[in-house]
Amino acid sequence: MPGGLVTLLPATTIGAAVTGTTGVVVLAEGLKSLLVEAKFLYGADGTTLKVWVQTRVKGGTWRDVMNFAFTTSAATKWSKCSIEIALTAARATSDAALADDTILDGFLGSEVRIKYTSTGTYSGATSITVIAEA
Prior knowledge:
By secondary structure, the chain is an all-beta fold. It has strands at residues 5-13, 21-22, 26-27, 33-41, 44-45, 48-56, 63-70, 75-82, 111-119, 122-123, 127-133.
């Protein structure tokens, strides 16, 4: 993945509420920064959609590093994380708990994935796409 573009979540229709759905695991060894674009196309209905970008050291515990929060309007959002910013020592892990539209700099492991949760039932052409560039 380093130095390239990758689809973390291809265009995915959002309908009935889901909890903790994950995407594919992408190998990201040598990752120094990660720029992510989340594109939410709103159809109708629904309440909230939250998307977390997570990372871990190979085989370890997943950790949130980005959150994108959407409601009932189309939006495209970007976030970037870098390992060059110091983290507080012995930082606790979080799984789908990072606050809306925030990042955690300083931690990028050797694997990356998406986890998302929605509330309410979206209809129409509601979808989410997430792409990243290292």
